[in-house]
Amino acid sequence: MPVKRSVVLFHSILGLRRAEREIADAFEREGASVFLPDLFAGRVAKTYEDGFRAKDEIGDALILERAERALEDAPADAVLAGISFGAFLVGRVWKNRPHMPGALLISGVAPWMKPPRCGLPVSAHIARPDPFDDESFFTQWAAAAENAALQLHRYDNAGHYFLDRDLPDYDAAAAALCMKRSVEFVLGLP
Fold this sequence. Notes:
By secondary structure, this protein is α/β, with parallel strands linked by helices. The chain has helices at 18-29, 48-58, 60-72, 85-93, 135-143, 172-188; strands at 6-10, 33-35, 79-83, 103-106, 121-128, 149-156.
């Protein structure tokens, strides 16, 4: 099957785990090519607290350097995708990807470029409520999209990282709907 689209998927604060590989597999079954950089160099965490501790020990500068290095191997027109902390990382690098056709943000959002690229398709998938940010944060974030083509999907009563079957956050129905929407979004980009 010919490759339809390339995706760079940044993992969550928990490190590169089975959940990210399952997400990548879903895209690859549809013919996409997925780059799955390991920004924590093999470190994984079982809790968010342990993940943030690992991030702090590794350091933001090294994590960002690893993310940027991973992008060097990806096509200029690859979709940037991130999960939770990985979504935040998308916001750190997307200004340097002018040919990126869109961004996929799961369980987190990215700081907008200033100004957001006009017409940039962004698909965000967030639990409601989300334990890390209150509703006003997401309302303000969506309002700041300005001319970006934002699709904001909310998943009521799902846990923060509701796609990860190894976490108490997991919600099978929300995960299935999110993946359906995400694959359609990525493969439908021009």
